[in-house]
């Protein structure tokens, strides 16, 4: 019996399907055993990947960690494990950049078991069915009700900033990897965030996306969060009111829904002995029948496009998938160079402090740019 130690994140979306798969009788009969540990969401977002790979055979990670992982030589490239043709087929079947986001330095480094991006969460029972489409409409609803919340805790202040910049026509660091965002776009995005934050309910100020969605399901003081990572579980929660999920806001009708890709992938650490049984299990998790059936039925959020388009899956989960698929297809992929995660942490803290003190935009945008360049250089990018 081959026994592997594995780590995922502590939420039903990140854990339940993996743990259930490991308990299947057919899995036990294959001669493979996987023990899944859990870590809090905050640890998942910031814990050094090399340390995790030294302790675990399989590690669930977010794509911005791949530059750090490559620098630490702690993950196996998927092409080495499965072959380039298999990876190309999976990439073609995945929704949006779910697998492409794990490509760095010429290889892919994790299988995208889970797909997610920032979308709009709305208590439509409290908005008379109205759902904003543009950022102007979000601002108007905020001014009218005082019940529109920004997600700013942890890394989410800078993630919201990146998403709005993408909606405003300037995906950060896309045109020039050395320039995070132009001063003009940066100022427009920051001023929008500053305005919305001035009326954002204090009850969710310190909460991560899970906390915000839990709060929205149970309380009526937040009727809309325009950018929050989608959790299908809250479209049909066990407690509270269902939350309607829709595409992220656009600068104008017909424009790009600005959103920063999230989701998770399963990485194979260098310490892991790759056997035929392990390869079969991982490819089984990525198969259409599992992505459409097994994973959604165990509170997971699949990564194959076929699952997001499936009528039965959408009927079970309040049309979560079909209502947000456009946003995921167009999601912005963050930089993945070594050092990006440290930048993300510092930049979010900077933005929160700036919003709390109503600091002027030009100085904040310059500080963000300087910080971004420093971390690129520190990570070995030139």
Automatic annotation (TrEMBL):
Domain of life of the organism encoding this protein: Bacteria
Name the SUPFAM superfamilies for this protein.
Periplasmic binding protein-like II
* Keywords of the record: Plasmid
Q: What is this protein called?
A: Carbohydrate ABC transporter substrate-binding protein
Tell me which species this is from.
Rhizobium jaguaris
Q: Could you read off the lineage of the organism from its UniProt record?
A: Bacteria, Pseudomonadati, Pseudomonadota, Alphaproteobacteria, Hyphomicrobiales
């Amino acid at each position: 019996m081959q026994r592997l130690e594995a780590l995922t994140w502590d939420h039903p979306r990140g854990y339940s399907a993996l743990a259930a798969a490991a308990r299947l009788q057919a899995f036990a009969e294959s001669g493979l055993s996987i023990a899944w540990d859990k870590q809090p969401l905050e640890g998942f977002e910031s814990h050094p990947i090399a340390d995790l790979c030294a302790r675990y055979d399989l590690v669930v990670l977010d794509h911005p960690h791949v530059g750090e992982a490559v620098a630490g030589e702690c993950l196996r490239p998927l092409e080495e494990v499965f072959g380039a043709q298999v990876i190309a087929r999976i990439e073609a079947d995945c929704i949006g950049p779910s697998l492409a986001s794990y490509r760095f330095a010429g290889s892919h480094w994790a299988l995208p078991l889970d797909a997610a991006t920032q979308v709009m969460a709305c208590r439509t029972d409290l908005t008379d069915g109205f759902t904003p489409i543009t950022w102007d409409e979000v601002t108007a609803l905020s001014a009218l009700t005082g019940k529109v919340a920004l997600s700013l805790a942890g890394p989410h202040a800078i993630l919201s900033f990146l998403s709005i910049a993408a909606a405003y026509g300037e995906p950060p660091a896309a045109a020039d990897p050395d320039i995070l965002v132009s001063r003009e776009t940066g100022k427009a995005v920051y001023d929008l965030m500053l305005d919305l934050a001035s009326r954002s309910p204090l009850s969710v100020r310190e909460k991560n996306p899970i906390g915000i969605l839990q709060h929205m399901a149970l309380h009526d003081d937040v009727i809309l969060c325009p950018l929050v990572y989608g959790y299908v579980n809250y479209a049909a929660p066990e407690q509270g009111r269902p939350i309607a999920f829709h595409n992220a806001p656009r600068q104008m009708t017909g424009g790009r829904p600005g959103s920063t890709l999230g989701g998770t992938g399963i990485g194979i650490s260098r310490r892991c002995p790759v056997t035929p049984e392990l390869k079969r299990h991982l490819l089984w998790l990525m198969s259409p029948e599992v992505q459409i059936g097994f994973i959604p039925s165990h509170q997971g959020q699949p990564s194959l496009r076929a699952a997001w388009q499936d009528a039965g899956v959408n009927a079970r989960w309040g049309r979560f998938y079909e209502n947000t698929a456009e946003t995921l297809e167009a999601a912005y992929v963050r930089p993945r160079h070594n050092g990006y995660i440290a930048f993300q942490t510092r930049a979010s803290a900077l933005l929160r402090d700036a919003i709390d003190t109503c600091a002027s935009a030009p100085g904040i945008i310059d500080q963000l740019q300087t910080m971004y360049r420093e971390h690129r250089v520190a990570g070995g990018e030139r």
